[in-house]
Specification:
The protein is an alpha/beta fold. 43% of the residues lie in helices and 17% in strands. The longest helix is centred in the last third of the chain and has 19 residues, at 281-299.
């Protein structure tokens, strides 16, 4: 049974942010991709809110959230996550779930505030390789990028269809929502600035990827990395890189699925995530006990 949506606004760093909060239990934060909105996590929000306190949020400048005052860099978006959690009153470690750009943002926050993160679920996440769809690479070219982002039902429909293995999921309702979002006065600027900060026409930049994943690997945070086998935005071959770069991480491939497995395989995705989370509380307690032991050792004469 679907849970009635309760959309809200709150102020984060002086800017209005659009979000949705439902349920009770351990906190969960769902982070969408570039040019997308919390709509990409509607199915998971509904499915998970029976046992978790689920937060879905429009990243700054996306959907109903106003843009940031500072440039759109990965560190700035990661800082937003912390500011949002503070504003929303989340004071215990949170399960972060990030799709595409949202995965990179989740990792960026985790490496700066690991004690506030219970686990990471990275869904076809940016950061594991250079390759990315040509459509996003072309956005980095001066002049052409803004032209490609001119709102139209045709371009919105083409973009939606590229996200799914099953073309029927690119419904008129989804296309209409994407078109409405693209017409926001700040939408194109935010997408262009974000894309150019993270990549070039050749693909996703390597320096920030190497730095981020090197720092994350050293933390040993409970991590689940999932991909659809027919992802046309970020290739599923990146999952092999994730296994190498994060050897402690669990991985899962969803068959017959595109870039949004949380939508296209909603029930299966929810079950996989729940099973993963069921194993993480012991890890957090181990980390806390280990920290206390080190503190006691430091106090001994």
């Amino acid at each position: 049974m679907s849970i009635p949506a309760r959309f809200r606004h709150l102020t984060v760093d002086g800017r209005r942010v659009h979000h949705r909060v439902d349920g009770a239990g351990p906190p969960v934060l769902l982070l969408h991709g570039i040019g997308r909105t919390l709509r990409d996590f509607t199915e998971q929000h509904d499915l998970l809110a029976d046992r978790y306190r689920v937060h879905s949020v429009d990243l700054p400048g996306h959907g109903g959230s106003l843009p940031m005052a500072q440039p759109y860099t990965l560190p700035a978006l990661a800082r937003f996550v912390g500011a949002y959690l503070d504003a929303a009153g989340v004071d215990e470690p949170v399960h972060l779930v990030g799709n595409s750009l949202g995965g990179a943002v989740a990792m960026g926050y985790a490496v700066t505030r690991p004690t506030r993160v219970a686990s990471l679920t990275l869904v076809a996440s940016a950061g594991f390789g250079r390759e990315v769809t040509l459509a996003l690479r072309l956005l980095t070219l001066p002049g052409l990028g803004r032209l490609l982002l001119r709102p139209s039902r045709h371009t919105a429909g083409r973009a939606e269809r590229a996200l799914f293995h099953d073309p029927t999921l690119a419904s008129p309702e989804r296309i209409g929502h994407a078109l409405a979002v693209a017409r926001h006065p700040y939408a194109a600027r935010v997408v262009l600035e974000t894309a150019r900060g993270l990549g070039t026409v050749r693909g996703i930049r390597q320096p920030w990827r190497d730095d981020l994943l090197g720092r994350l690997a050293g933390l040993g945070l409970p991590t689940l990395v999932v991909w659809g086998d027919d992802d046309r935005i970020l290739p599923p071959a990146h999952l092999a890189a994730a296994r190498t770069l994060l050897p402690h991480a669990r991985t899962r491939v969803f068959a017959g699925c595109g870039h949004l497995p949380q939508v296209e395989r909603a029930e299966e995705f929810s079950e996989v995530v729940r099973e993963f989370w069921a194993t993480t509380p012991g890890w957090r307690q181990h980390q806390q006990d280990d920290a206390r032991r080190h503190q006691q050792d430091d106090l001994r004469p």
